[in-house]
Amino acid sequence: IEINQKDEENEELRSQLAKYKHQLKESQNDQEQYRYELENFQRTIDHYESEIKALKNDKEELIIKNAELSEKYELLKLVNTKQSNNINSNFSYNESDVHKVRTNENEYENSDKKTDCHDENRTLREELSEKNKTIKNLQQRLNDMKKTLQKELKYHMLPNEKTVPTTPDTGLESPKIPKPNLSNTQISPVSSNTSLVNHQISPLTKTPSLPHSTFSVKKNLSSSDMSVLHEDVNFKYLKHVIVKFLTSREYEALHLVKALSVLLNLSNDEEKIIKDTLEWKMSWFGSKPKLN
């Protein structure tokens, strides 16, 4: 009987052991399944983290671009405001001009004679202004030529010349000219390779008056000598204006266009092209002028 009980207990224990082994196997299978799912979750998390990192980088780039665009926008807004103010001021100025013109038209609309006189007066004023400018340019060139001639007479005195005391008016030494055969004496004109520093001609420099003896020498020079001298002086003045024009800024060079036009005998169209080109270089949004 005891043996039978022991056998039954052993059978029961075996069945429980088999049951536990089965449960253990199922637990191991579940554990493998959970491990596989955990790895999948980890890979998903890593993928999301990489995407989050990329999105953060994109966000930083977008922030930088947004700051740059904001700065450009503010700059353009400032420029636009400035241009708008200029346009408004010009518009107001033009409105005042239009009002003046309309007022003048109302005053003279009933009188053709007054209108003709007004037009003629305006034309004469324009002509007078142009002639005054031409006279000023010619007077300046004449003063520059006198100044250069005075320097050349001082540096290239004749062999028989003697120096007299300084004149009280100009503070310059007056060369004394010998009497015999003065008209045949050759006086060296301004050399073409003379240093521009020693003979620099400035349109804004005031020219002192020449002594009386200098004018005597000028009268006794032959016409060919005077022609060569004037051509050399004109060349040096032209050289100085061109160098100043090329080395100046646009707004400074714009004031030299008229002098350059006179020296080079430019036409009105050529002078206008040079002015338009300089104004285009100074402007922000202007269009380049067309060269014919």
From TrEMBL:
InterPro entries xref list: Golgi-autophagy_related, GRIP_dom
Record's keyword annotation contains Coiled coil: yes
Spans annotated as Disordered: 161-183
PANTHER family: GOLGIN SUBFAMILY A MEMBER 1 (PTHR23157:SF24), GRIP AND COILED-COIL DOMAIN-CONTAINING PROTEIN 1 (PTHR23157)
Protein name: GRIP domain-containing protein
Residue ranges occupied by any GRIP domain in the UniProt entry: 228-277
Key words, A-Z: Coiled coil
Pfam families: GRIP
Coiled-coil stretches: 3-79, 121-155
GO cellular component: Golgi apparatus
